[in-house]
Amino acid sequence: MIRSSKHISYELKDDFMVIHIGGEIDHHNAVAVRTEIDEEIVVKRPTRVLLELSGVDFMDSSGLGLIMGRYALMKRLGGTLAVLDPSPAVLKIITLAGMDRMISVLRTKQKNNA
Question: CA within 20 to 30 Å of 16's CA: 6, 49, 50, 76, which one?
Fold first, then answer.
């Protein structure tokens, strides 16, 4: 099942949810994104969530808070969360913050070395 809003789409397979986020995650939209994602997680109750962030062009500390909050929510619900295919900009801020030591960062897409 795929459900979509402006910059967020969801894929649910059994108890596994992939949340695709695009655009920017900053203090202007983080609350709305967080609220929408939380509602979807609470209703569907997946045991594993992947935040797919390859389409995120910009992320500030509000985006880090968004990731950490969803990580905490999934932990409270007895599930897990990982970041999937972060864009270079997102990966840089995650790494600089040291968040990659706490939350798994998975990469399925090949890096372009050109």
Answer: 6
